[in-house]
Specification:
The protein has 33 helices and 14 strands. By secondary structure, the protein is an alpha/beta fold. The radius of gyration is 35 Å and the shape is elongated.
Length: 775
């Protein structure tokens, strides 16, 4: 960068090229429109042949104005850049925004605006020169966009050199002429405005060379790229957009880690990968209704799909989410699942939704960036604060943009599996605020059981907020048709795989299975998995299922009793009670765990041999997801199995019943034992070099090698099990001893696994438990 300098003798000359560590003195800078053949070039100035060109007067104007403002140095693009040097030209264009930004003053010389040659006054004009000002070619030129936005001080002058005002005093006029948001004119960082909005500022601007339509925007987006004159406008714009996308991705990579998400909560996550979608030609009318709701401009903002356990809500939600994603309509999704860590509560609900939305609509990034910069712990705040600052305000702040997709769909599955009723009510209340959201139109598909607190939550919504559909009230013939298709498909696969007779199963058997299943799809899915049990006999297992008639057994009994009673029958009479005890210990623990564990980790936590856990689960593949990889977590296939085992009305009626409170007590004890034993918690458990080491600098492998999955689980959830087991704290008991010996060790471990923020909440819980016990 070279500047023009007024010497002590009043003569103008160039400084040396100010590069590297050279300190650039305060300088003024000129913004103007060019006149072909009349601008003073670098070569003109060097050769002394500049005086005869009309553009020389603008240089002298800039020199005189700079002197009036106490500035010795100034810069004019026409003569300060040696355009004959392609390297210098490229460097100058890539640096232009910075040069204007760093200038002490920017003078805009409007050669087509006069204070003496007046145009006819338009109605409402404040100044005689205002009509000409509004029509000035300067506002139509591509390069002057950055010259308006980059400098702090921008002053407008007429062709006579008379000051008309500055960017502040003429703010409203400039806003109306350019369409640029007033905050941008006031100096708000351009990163606070979406890509689409910044592109709209350039819509009506022109450049002499086609490629400059892209190159003049480099500074507006903070992009640096090589100039290839001759590539054409389309190629230049394409390269610019590629660089913008890369920059956006880098920004997302910077901010998304600050939005903690619930692992596995997305419909296309690995955890959900093998869960069912609707088979072709099933649920067609229902899926069409959902699609119509999503695409109709007159639809209500929320669609509530409710149904009793096992009616296929999650299968429909996964299918709908995939359909929305394929149509480029899916904005975000969250599949609640009890017993799956953060998926079982609302702690990361809105931050997960926000992370999805910002990845789908980068125009929300400025709002989210601003919110996180103002409060780095926002994801731990009240749900209302998270919703407003991570979703509502960022989406509403996508101003003056034209989105390709006018509507974004959010899919929220199994809301009833969110553990706190208060959080569910809050979520429903906040979702109603999407009704009038603009400019982004947000639609929300919610599935849940029709629990009382959820029904009341919907009833309290304003009229016209939602439409609903109750799955178990769908026409019976439609449900029968879909379940029959499911049976025919699944059983034909079993028949071919097991090489059974072509006549199996008979039409009568399929009809009997359909009658037993309606309206529960989970019954049909579980029966098919049971019939296909490895080592079992499909024909015998099918007959076993058909023995459980509707008139005698409840739907849950018909779903799970054939599987469990078959296992019990296979035990010797004197071993049945021991088998039931082991079943309650292992399987009962699995269904009440706060987050799933692998077979290996479960065995270590429960203090039983791994082989015993493997044997106990080997015959339960029809009700549990038991992966071949013993380090992968064991999961419930459906929450109804948990309901079957722990439901209070089943106490005394089922030999498989699991006492939930006692199981939580036992798990709390196992967690405390694991954390307190010789291989448990200790000071500096990861053998770090010193107390000042940042957690972010600790290798994840070091953490996992010293804090096993089961030990991490114990650290995270021992307080939760203690509370749900309704077990207080007393002097000298196991909890008291653990806190005396390992409180600081526990806090250190929680910090290492990224859960330190939860400790205040957990310590408050412990204090309440101690107060209850003492009372």
């Amino acid at each position: 960068m070279r500047l023009l300098e007024r010497g002590n003798d009043g003569e103008l000359g160039f400084t040396k090229d100010l590069i590297g560590d050279d300190k650039v003195p305060p300088y003024a800078i000129l913004s103007h429109t060019w006149q072909d053949g009349q601008e003073v070039t670098f070569e003109d100035w060097k050769s002394g042949g500049s005086g005869g060109k009309a553009g020389y007067s603008k240089i002298m104007f800039c020199a005189q104005q700079a002197e009036c403002d106490g500035l010795r140095y100034f810069w004019v693009d026409t003569c300060c850049i040696n355009k004959a040097d392609p390297v210098e030209l490229q460097d100058a264009i890539n640096s232009m925004f910075r040069w204007y930004r760093d200038a002490a003053r920017c003078y805009v010389f409007l050669s087509d605006v006069s204070t003496t040659k007046r145009k006819a006054l338009s109605e409402g004009s404040k100044f005689t020169w205002e009509p000409a000002f509004r029509e000035s070619r300067w506002f139509q030129r591509g390069w002057t966009l950055q010259e308006l936005l980059a400098p702090r001080s921008v002053e407008f002058f007429s062709q006579e050199g008379k000051r008309l005002g500055d960017k502040q005093s003429l703010e409203q006029e400039v806003h109306e002429i350019t369409g640029i948001a007033i905050p941008a004119l006031q100096g708000t960082s351009l990163h606070e405005f979406s890509v689409d909005e910044r592109l709209l500022w350039t819509k009506s601007r022109q450049t002499t060379r086609k490629e400059d339509k892209a190159y003049c925007l480099l500074g507006i987006f903070g992009i640096f790229m090589p100039l290839i004159y001759g590539e054409g406008e389309d190629n230049a714009i394409r390269r610019l957009r590629d660089e913008i996308d890369k920059a956006t991705d880098r920004s997302l990579q910077r901010y998304l880690p600050r939005l903690p998400t619930a692992t596995g909560a997305s419909y296309d996550s690995h955890d959900e990968e093998h869960n069912a979608r609707c088979l072709p030609n099933t649920r067609t009318a229902l899926l069409e209704t959902i699609a119509e709701w999503a695409n109709s401009k007159d639809s209500k903002s929320i669609f509530w799909l409710s149904g009793m356990a096992g009616t296929g809500k999650s299968t429909i939600a996964r299918t709908a989410a995939r359909s929305f994603a394929e149509a480029d309509q899916l904005g975000a999704n969250f599949f609640f699942k009890r017993g799956e860590g953060e998926r079982g509560n609302a702690s990361r609900f809105f931050s997960t939704i926000a992370a999805d939305l910002v990845a789908r609509e980068p125009g929300t990034l400025p709002g989210i960036r601003k919110a996180l910069d103002q409060d780095s712990s926002l994801s731990q705040r009240a749900l209302k604060d998270q919703f407003e600052k991570l979703i509502l305000h960022p989406l509403s702040g996508v101003q003056q943009t034209r989105l390709i997709t006018p509507k974004l769909i959010v899919v929220v599955d199994a809301l009833d599996e969110c553990e706190r009723e208060e959080d569910i009510r809050t979520i429903l209340q906040l979702l109603t605020r999407t009704k009038d959201m603009r400019p982004v139109s947000l639609r929300v598909l919610v599935t849940s059981r029709p629990e009382l607190h959820i029904r009341l939550g919907f009833k309290q919504m304003p009229n016209g907020t939602y439409q609903d559909l109750i799955l178990h009230e769908v026409v019976k013939n439609t449900i029968e048709h879909d379940i029959r298709l499911f049976y025919e498909h699944e059983l034909s696969v079993i028949r071919q795989a097991r090489m059974l007779s072509p006549g199996w199963p008979t039409a009568g058997q399929i009809q009997a299975l359909v009658d037993l299943a309606v309206p529960l799809f989970i019954f049909a899915a579980t029966v098919c998995r049971y019939i296909n049990t490895k080592g079992g006999h499909p024909e015998g297992y099918l007959n076993k299922v058909l023995q459980y008639q509707k008139s005698t057994f409840s739907q849950l009994d018909r779903t799970y009793l054939p599987i469990l009673e078959q296992l019990l029958v296979e035990q010797d009479e004197d071993e049945k009670e021991a088998w039931l005890h082991a079943f309650r210990k292992v399987v009962g623990s699995i269904v009440v765990l706060e987050s799933p564990l692998s077979i290996k980790s479960l065995a270590n936590l429960l203090q039983v041999p791994k082989k015993e856990v493997e044997c106990r689960l080997d015959a339960l593949h029809s009700v549990l997801s038991v992966p071949d990889n013993k380090d992968a977590p064991v999961r419930l296939l459906h929450l109804s199995f948990r309901d079957f085992l722990v439901s209070r009305p089943r106490q005394g009626k089922s030999q498989f019943w699991v006492e939930e409170k006692d199981t939580h007590k036992q798990l709390a004890t196992y967690c405390l034992d694991l954390m307190s034993n010789q291989c448990g918690l200790r000071q500096n458990i990861c053998n770090l070099s010193g107390p000042g080491v940042l957690v972010s600098e600790v290798d994840k492998g070091v953490i996992t090698s010293n804090l096993s999955p089961e030990l991490q689980y114990a650290c995270r959830y021992w307080v939760d099990h203690l509370k749900q087991g309704q077990q207080g704290i007393a002097d000298g008991d196991a909890t008291h001893r653990f806190l005396q010996e390992h409180l600081l060790h526990w806090l250190e471990a929680m910090s290492l696994i990224g859960e330190l923020s939860r400790c205040i909440h957990l310590l408050n819980r412990l204090q309440n438990l101690a107060a209850v016990r003492s009372f």
